[in-house]
């Protein structure tokens, strides 16, 4: 049975560094390489920032739950909040070809999540809250070395 | 996270260290605004010791870039960008638009 590790913190951006460290440590234990761990940290940081800024409208006294597990050679992160449901489709894709003068300030966070992870799913449940589940495929180091 | 500001004849040199996420990016925003409030629109960011640079930090960079470039000769230039941070800037489509130098000395000298 897959072991799931959970970190539960208040919805303050001051906790982003601790969340990043928690996720990196679990990913390192699972055998992911440093580049993949960095990608995961970015995706988790952006997802938690969206939760704090949109779902909780920057209220810092709410609950933010981050769970990590390994399932079928995928590192899986599930982030849960109990705020206003976040509609990722309401965020326009950033125009990466636009000159700097015309760059808008939004949309990069979700874009990073989708580019750096193998899958990103948003869902809303009446009792279980809002969840974003992100997956990153990997070959564990110990398996890799025996091939 | 730490920002050390050195006021030079040609520009302000901001040495950035640590994580720049949505918690700490406002301090980067503030530091660059402080330079502009002083009338300095030529800014170099020394990125050598940056561990993380998220979308909030990129927004701060884009905003300062726009403001500085509105003045004659004004610009925000980057120096010593670590590979992983460069990857983030490339992903965001920022890397080709900002002048990036190997060392702070070269970046400062470019003004």
Describe the structure.
The complex is a heterodimer of chains A (147) and B (111). Chain A has 147 residues and is of the alpha+beta class. Helices cover 35% and strands 27% of the residues of chain A. Chain A contains 4 helices and 5 strands. A 5-stranded antiparallel β-sheet of chain A has the order 1-2-3-5-4. In chain A, helix 2 packs antiparallel against helix 3. The two termini of chain A are 25 Å apart. The C terminus of chain A is likely disordered. With 111 residues, chain B is an alpha/beta fold. In chain B, 39% of the residues lie in helices and 31% in strands. Chain B is built from 4 helices and 5 strands. In chain B, strands 1-2-3-4-5 form a 5-stranded mixed β-sheet. In chain B, helix 1 runs parallel beside helix 2. The radius of gyration of chain B is 12 Å and the shape is globular. The interface between A and B is medium-sized, with 29 and 23 residues.
Question: Which terms would index this structure?
Answer:
heterodimer; A: 147 residues; alpha+beta; five-stranded antiparallel sheet; 4 helices; 35% helix; 27% strand; B: 111 residues; alpha/beta; five-stranded mixed sheet; 5 strands; globular
The chain pair forming the largest interface, with residue counts per chain, is: A-B, 29 and 23 residues
This entry's quaternary arrangement is: heterodimer
Using only CA atoms, what is the Rg of chain B? 12 Å
Q: How many strand units of chain A?
A: 5
Number of helices of chain B: 4
Radius of gyration of chain A: 16 Å
Span between termini of chain B: 27 Å
């Amino acid at each position: 049975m897959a072991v799931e590790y959970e970190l539960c913190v208040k919805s303050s951006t001051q906790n982003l560094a601790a969340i990043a460290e928690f996720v990196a440590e679990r990913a390192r234990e699972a055998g992911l390489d440093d580049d993949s761990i960095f990608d995961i940290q970015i995706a988790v940081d952006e997802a938690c920032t969206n939760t704090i800024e949109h779902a909780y409208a920057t209220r810092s006294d709410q609950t933010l739950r981050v769970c990590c597990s390994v399932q079928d050679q995928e590192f899986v992160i599930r982030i849960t909040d109990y705020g206003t449901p976040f509609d990722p489709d309401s965020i326009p894709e950033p125009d990466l070809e636009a000159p700097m003068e015309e760059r808008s300030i939004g949309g990069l966070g979700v874009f990073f999540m989708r580019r750096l992870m193998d899958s990103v799913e948003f869902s809303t449940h009446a009792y279980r809250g809002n969840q974003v589940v992100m997956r990153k495929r990997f070959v564990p180091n110990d398996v890799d070395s025996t091939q | 996270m730490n920002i050390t500001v050195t006021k030079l004849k040609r520009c302000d040199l901001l040495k950035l260290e640590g994580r720049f996420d949505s918690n700490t990016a406002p301090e980067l925003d503030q530091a660059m605004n402080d330079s502009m409030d002083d009338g300095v629109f030529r800014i170099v960011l020394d990125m050598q010791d940056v561990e993380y640079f998220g979308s909030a930090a990129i927004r701060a960079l884009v905003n300062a870039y726009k403001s500085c470039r509105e003045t004659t000769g004004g610009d925000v230039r980057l120096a010593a960008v670590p590979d992983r941070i460069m990857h983030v800037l490339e992903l965001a489509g920022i890397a080709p638009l900002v002048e990036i130098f190997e060392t702070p000395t070269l970046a400062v000298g470019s003004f």
